[in-house]
Fold this sequence. Notes:
The chain has about 140 residues and is α+β, with helices and mostly antiparallel strands. It has 4 helices and 4 strands. A two-stranded antiparallel ribbon has the order 1-2. The chain starts with 17 loop residues before the first strand and ends in a 6-residue tail after the last helix.
Amino acid sequence: MRVSELDRAGTASPGDGFVPIKNRPPDQSTGPADTMVSVDALAFVRFGLRAPDDARILSTLKVIDAELKVDTPHGPAWHRYQGDGYGEHADGAPFDGIGIGRAWPLLTGERAHYELAAGRARATEELAQALEAFAGVCVE
């Protein structure tokens, strides 16, 4: 859902072997459907559609972590998908529909939901601590 929008006439589609990818320059706006990875697979667990120990989920987690995980000084965070272009430009210019992607602390929270469902309290606590560390100073 985060990677592509509804198919439109004349656009790439998964049936053609490619998916449209938002927030990228036009010449980079499609990717091979069979190589795109997104953290969205964890939603199957959050919604109760797959068990946390489902073999498909476990193998997908390995790919998600290999492709999308970023270890930061505050803890892990994840990109939404490979080549995510949501964010400012490399030179610091503001986001204008394309840019360079960043790891999202929000996805650390989503991973914590998965770890909790999997019964891994310590991993859940570590991810919650990372979320706290990502927060800025509160100014009133």
